[in-house]
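Internal tracking record. Fields below are filled automatically when a chain is submitted to the structure queue. Please do not edit lines marked as system-generated. If the sequence contains nonstandard residues, flag them in the REMARKS field before resubmitting.
Queue: standard
Priority: normal
Entity type: single polypeptide chain
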Amino acid sequence: MYSFLLYAASVTPSPIPGVPTGDAAQSIGPGFVGFVATAAVVIATIFIIKDMNRRIRRVRYQGEAEARQQELVERGKEIQPDEPGDTPAR
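SYSTEM-GENERATED OUTPUT FOLLOWS
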């Protein structure tokens, strides 16, 4: 048991086989296709965020317009006469 631990502790790792060095190491990467794919995702995200902001703003303005309309209706009920022939309160 102890001999295995001593062996495991004393063995030095060898370099990883298949790892390129020099010019070959620089050629590894996503390249132009990866750049285009990343740029497409970024552009799509920008358009989606702009569309989301526009929709949220529209919903908020719609709610404010409905509240204003309801307020005008309530004020109109106060101004209009209750009986035919009554004059509106001023």
